[in-house]
Design goal:
There is one protein chain. By secondary structure, the chain is an alpha/beta fold. The chain has two domains: 2-38 and 47-92 and 303-328, no CATH class; 96-294, Rossmann fold (3-Layer(aba) Sandwich). The chain has ten helices and eleven strands. Strand 4 (100-107), helix 4 and strand 5 form a beta-alpha-beta unit. Helix 4 (113-129) crosses helix 9 and helix 6 packs parallel to helix 7. The chain starts with a strand and ends with a helix. InterPro entries: VWF_A, vWFA_dom_sf. Residues 101-286 form the VWFA domain. Keywords: Membrane, Transmembrane, Transmembrane helix.
């Protein structure tokens, strides 16, 4: 943020008020001058009175009180005008957003049923580690469905992940979570799922780093429209790195080896869910990508700052009361 200094919301009030005040002061001055001219009269031998020390001290005190009264009244009126014009502090905010997009891609086929809830919990942990990145979620089985697109609304993301966790633990109230994932032939069509995740990104943007966190055991059961290898080539073309997360219940198998080869070929990394450092490894790998920030559009922020006019008005009021006290006593 950059503080640009004080400002007035309604500067015209100050200008118009000053002109009116000066006009009234001039009118009062002319009126008092005329009255003084009409009321003045010659008094013989008055010099003996005006030369007295007591008279001179009284006259000096009177003049001082008049100066204090006039100054205090001007200060009070000026402060009131400034306050009416609404003094503001203006701050220019130049927000920055992190330039990373991360799609969470979840295989919800039968072979993954025992791991799905754990995977959602894993994703929740991943999201807690991010700040400013845009996150999206796609689930797939015989077809893929977007749960939510890329967004940086973390309250919304956490709500959706909470609903996913309930659905994946068998809560019938959340059966609609799986809508759109059984529209094809077969199950666990890995390539189609990854391709759908990749299509969720915007058009090519060299300023944003792009990653897919891809959770699957790579056990294909059906004929996908796009093979895993073809989806990997699409990831390369889009500049997307794929980070694989595999349960590996019985250790690495042929599918796991293939998945490792595919994801590392995109510039990403492969992790087993049993690896305690998997979460930290994915986050560190994603954060190691393009770390620059993107400047968003500048915006001006205004906040009322009445401290100065209130203080000056208080000083002026004290001066007016002090100067007029003698006449009121």
């Amino acid at each position: 943020m950059e503080l640009t200094g004080p400002d007035l919301k309604w500067p015209a009030v100050l200008v118009i008020g000053t002109v009116v005040a000066l006009g009234m002061a001039y009118a009062v001055y002319r009126l008092m001058s005329r009255r003084q001219a009409r009321a003045s009269a010659a008094v013989a031998n008055s010099s003996a009175l005006t030369e007295l020390p007591e008279f001179r001290r009284a006259l000096r005190r009177h003049r001082i009180r008049m100066v204090v009264l006039a100054s205090s009244a001007a200060l009070l009126g000026g402060a009131a005008l400034v306050g009416a014009a609404r003094p503001l502090d203006t701050t220019v905010d130049r927000p920055q957003t992190r330039n990373r997009d991360i799609m969470l891609c979840l295989d919800i086929s039968g072979s993954m049923a025992a791991y799905d809830a754990t995977l959602v919990s894993t994703f929740t942990s991943l999201v807690k580690r991010f700040e400013g990145e845009r996150i999206g979620l796609v689930i797939f089985n015989s077809s893929a469905a977007t749960v939510f697109p890329l967004t940086d609304d973390y309250d919304f993301i956490n709500t959706e992940l909470g609903s996913a966790g309930r659905a994946l633990t068998g809560d019938p109230a959340y059966d609609s979570f799986f809508a759109g994932t059984f529209n094809g032939r077969g199950t666990s069509l890995i390539g189609d799922g990854l391709a759908t995740c990749l299509s969720s990104f915007d058009k090519v943007d060299t300023q944003r780093a792009r990653s897919v966190v891809f959770a699957t055991d790579n056990h294909l059961a059906g004929r996908p429209i796009i093979t895993l290898g073809e989806a990997a080539e699409l990831a390369k073309a889009k500049g997307v790195r794929v980070y694989g997360l595999n349960p590996e219940e019985d250790g690495p198998d042929e599918e796991a080896t293939t998945m490792r080869t595919v994801v590392t070929g995109t510039g990403g990394q492969y992790f087993a869910m049993s690896d305690q450092s998997a979460i930290k490894g994915i986050v560190d790998s994603v954060e190691a990508q393009e770390a620059t920030l993107i400047d968003s559009a500048s915006r001006s922020l205004y906040s009322d700052d009445p401290t100065l006019p209130i203080t000056l008005a208080g000083i002026g009021l004290v001066g007016v009361i002090g100067a007029t006290r003698r006449w009121s006593s």
